[in-house]
Amino acid sequence: MNKSKDLLKPSRRRFIASTVLALTGMTTLSRSSFASSFFKPDSAPNSKFNGVQIGVIVPYSFRSMPGTAQDLLKYCVSIGINAVEMQNTPIESFAGAPTAPAGLFGPPPPGGGKRQLTPEQQTALDNYTKALKEWRLSVSMDKFKALRKLYQEAGVTMYGFKLPLTQAMSDAEYDYAFNAAKAVGANQLTMELPTEAELTKRIGEFATKHKLMVGYHAHTQATPELWDVAMSQSKYNGINLDIGHYVAGTSQSPIPLIKKYHDKITSMHLKDRKFNNGPNMPWGQGDTPIKEVLQLMKKEKYSFPATIELEYTIPQDSDAEKEVAKCLAYAKEALS
């Protein structure tokens, strides 16, 4: 029997996961009680194969589907994924953050650059930004711990909390970001790599204060030397590597970089892109050596997680949950 195909078959775990959303309208305590009583060890998700932890970045990988923290937990348990890197929005929404006004955070214009907002939209954005800041500086970490408990009782841990930090944010907001990351159980804060050395220096100082790694993510601008300045500023400044973007931007294998900096990689995004800024492809159809990288992690016993990032076009007869399951099956097969 092909073990990788088993990930796509109906299972007791998938049946259990299908009931999660129906019960998430209850109080946090009720949700927690449900998780502890219903998710038993024999049905718990497991995506750690031969020592290599496979996770998924959420909600991005499920951006075409409902994306509350409860929705995302349902998908992960259904697929069999037991670890995630989670972006801040569903976490903060679960904890009671103000809701962003509709229409402010859409995709950039076709030609690139920033979206142009109307005066009314700009005012709404300013008001939302102010309200979010006030909320962040007053919210109890107990709400984040409740989410951590909900996930853990369903068999899922959060290793990464993704929240961008800017120079304009106050020291108190920086403390909030690191405290929230620790409250949900993350061992790393992740964000896009800033272009300003002053900013990575400041972030690194707070990472040192909180003793929590920061993994900086890069796209096709990545080179073997891209993270050198940030890493020289603090031992807590690290790399959130994306091997697909690295391959597309450099037309080179990421394996030499991984071997050199494996002790500074906090986590690694998996996607399959082609050389020369080529497109995202279904796994196995691009130029990114996903199998070879995973086998290297297995051989060398690297401890950082490998994170599925679903970015290729989803077939019309499929959905994000099914495609992430295919990616997981691919990774499991590579590590068998």
UniProtKB/TrEMBL annotation:
Pfam families documented for this protein: AP_endonuc_2 (PF01261)
The organism's place on the tree of life at top rank: Bacteria
GO molecular function terms attached to this record: isomerase activity
Protein's UniProt keywords contain DNA repair: no
Keywords: Isomerase
InterPro entries, per database record: IolE/XylAMocC-like, Xyl_isomerase-like_sf, Xyl_isomerase-like_TIM-brl
Record-linked Gene3D superfamilies: Divalent-metal-dependent TIM barrel enzymes (3.20.20.150)
Domain Xylose isomerase-like TIM barrel: 196-324
Name of the protein: Sugar phosphate isomerase/epimerase
Organism field: Pseudarcicella hirudinis
Lineage of origin: Bacteria, Pseudomonadati, Bacteroidota, Cytophagia, Cytophagales
